[in-house]
Amino acid sequence: MARRRGPRGPDRRHGNPLLAPAVVRFQEVAPRESVGGDDRKEAAARTSCPARALQLPAAPAAPRLRPGCQDAAMAAAAVAAPEVLRECGCKGTRTCLICERQRGGDPPWQHPPQKTHQFIYYADTGWAVGAEESDFEGWAFPFPGVTLIEDFVTPAEEAEMVRLMDRDPWKLSQSGRRKQDYGPKVNFRKQKLKTAGFRGLPSFSREVVRRMGLYPVLEDFRPVEQCNLDYCPERGSAIDPHLDDSWLWGERLVSLNLLAPTVLSMSREAPGSLLLCLAPSGLPQAPAEGAPAPGRAVPCREVEVAVPLPRRALLVLTRAARHQWKHAIHRRHIGARRVSATFRELSAEFGPGGRQRELGQELLQTSLSFQGRPT
After folding, report:
1. How many domains does the chain contain in total?
2. What pTM was estimated for this model as a whole?
């Protein structure tokens, strides 16, 4: 298999990459060359920063994502968006700084302790490597199913997207988050959904979705839902470890990280152990299947893999990273306002030949009309 080209991983001179995600460099995935219309050449023209070479033409009915020379001012305005911190949307065992302060006293909701063994994901190799000064420093295991595309949008596009999001109301959500949903109303427990009120993805996402299709990993990706989440350190925003539904949502989960770098923490509650091998200097390319002969093992339940996410990067989760490893954003990794836009595609049940293919086609047509408002 041809080795993917990309910059080296985190500078290991920094004691703990978890505390400095902003200095991490990531693999660049080159898009396929657009030829006009729906035609695409199979050969991909690789550039050092593919997203920057793409222009954002205004769609017929979509607000234009403006390029310009006021990137810094626009980005600062987006980060400093005003908000009211008097209420929260927490329910059950979920809490945020607001409701914790209101309750006072000794918190009965103690947050789960950090996993015993920390590993860092290196995007340019596909390996998870033991953190420095840990019991497993120098040991590693392949971690498939994670793709990071750095600088997917420009600073001006980022600021304009957040500005357009902030024009619509944000709803309070669990664990100190706020959200905006563009998708059908779904009852995952009963496996039912309602299309009433769903008018599609927002108009400003038209170009984002088109650009996704320029990358091989996403060339046939057609999202039917977009969920915007707003994280704020003053609210103690976080999201607990979870697996996304697989009845309605398909193989790929795609998320655009805006305004601030953060860390995606991945964990697995499966029994058994992960087999490790020594990670030589420079780290070899991870094999497509399997791993070299193991030399050590660690219980799955004690492992957490940190995937540093830079600002303006696009994350794609597939395979084991999508279906076996839970993902989370810990409170300690939110140091400034962060906005994410997560896009989801339909499962096979709603695709061609699936049991609910007609409903799936209806959802796709609505979604890709790009006339949506938050539901």
Report:
1. 1
2. 0.79
